[in-house]
Write a structure and sequence with these properties.
By secondary structure, the protein is an all-alpha fold. The chain has helices at about 5-25, 30-35, 40-55, 60-65. It has four helices and no strands.
């Protein structure tokens, strides 16, 4: 384990938290910015899609559906 790994995990967690907040707040532009050049685990993507569907925001759902899934 390198000293960079915990910092990288912390940034990843903060990015995910920011993405969840932007989805809940219906901030389409912010979601788009946060998703640029990103991929997700299937469970993460499913959870974020559920949040977007709860808010009934089709644009954010479409943005999330376009994100590639990492194996």
């Amino acid at each position: 384990m390198t000293s960079e790994q915990p910092e990288q995990e912390s940034r990843s967690f903060m990015h995910y938290a920011a993405l969840k907040t932007a989805i809940v707040n219906d901030e389409e532009q912010r979601v788009k910015e946060l998703l640029t050049n990103q991929s997700m685990q299937p469970l993460e993507k499913g959870y974020l899609l559920d949040l977007a569907r709860l808010n009934n925001n089709r644009n954010i759902v479409a943005l999330l559906e376009a994100v590639p899934v990492t194996p």
